[in-house]
Design goal:
Elements lengths: L11 E8 L2 H13 L5 E8 L2 H12 L6 E5 L5 H13 L5 E5 L4 H14 L5 E3 L7 H13 L5 E3 L5 H25 L5 H4 L4 H14 L2 H8 L2
Parallel strand pairs: 1-2, 2-3, 3-4, 4-5, 5-6
Helix pairs in contact: 1-2, 2-3, 3-4, 4-5, 6-8, 8-9
Length: about 220
């Protein structure tokens, strides 16, 4: 989309191959502020000056609807990465972050790694083609070890797989604890059963049996 007007379609705003001048960035910021249907923002092959990047990151920091942010080849260097990092520390809505084909480098990824150690809502990150060397990968790996919410990582970091497996198991344990609490409180837990395995279900059943009795146990194992 490279028209002079921005339009949200099916919750997505996609802008491709253009320079984001102040007036246009103001319109994007207005959509981020006013459009509650906007859940995905993609900027591909776009460039912007630092003040416009600052406007965008400030708007995203306080946004409560956008769950996916994609920044493909947007000429992002370490200085811009500091703004992105600050936004990630303040945002609590984003689930998916894609920053590919930029110039983050070892310095920029250190800022992002620091932000990801604070952010506990993002579950998927993608950092392909950003000139990240050995030192940068080490920073990123250390930060992901501290972040239990990230379940998917796309980029050149083979060691990440063991961390993602750990996070996935931790998520199941968290869901199991929440489900057990819901059962004990006599609430409907059927939607949770679709997301956990049989072993976890048996564990919950045992816990509920010991706590409340047969009726709740039957609820726990019911499919």
């Amino acid at each position: 989309m490279n028209a002079l007007t921005e339009k949200v379609e099916n919750g997505k705003l996609k802008i491709v191959d253009t320079k984001l001048y102040p007036s246009r960035m103001d319109r994007i910021v207005k959509l981020l502020r006013d459009d509650s249907n906007l859940t995905s923002l993609e900027l591909s092959y776009c460039t912007m000056d630092l003040p416009e990047m600052q406007k965008l990151m400030n708007a995203l920091a306080g946004n409560s609807t956008v769950k996916t942010l994609r920044l493909y080849d947007c000429d992002i260097w370490p200085k811009e990465t500091t703004l992105l990092s600050d936004m990630l520390k303040r945002n609590s809505t984003l689930l998916t972050l894609v920053v590919c084909y930029n110039h983050i480098g070892n310095i920029g990824v250190r800022y992002l790694a620091d932000a990801l150690s604070y952010n506990c809502t993002i579950t998927s990150v993608t950092f392909y083609s950003n000139n990240i060397g050995v030192d940068g990968k080490r920073y990123l790996l250390q930060s992901l070890r501290m972040n239990a919410s990230i379940l998917k990582y796309f980029g050149d970091l083979p060691q990440i797989q063991t961390i993602l497996i750990r996070n996935s198991r931790g998520l199941k344990a968290t869901r199991a604890a929440a489900l057990c609490l819901m059962i004990i409180q006599r609430r409907d837990e059927s939607s949770w059963l679709k997301h956990i395995g049989k072993d976890v279900t048996r564990l919950i059943a045992k816990m509920v049996w010991q706590t409340r009795g047969q009726r709740e146990w039957l609820c726990a194992v019911k499919e």
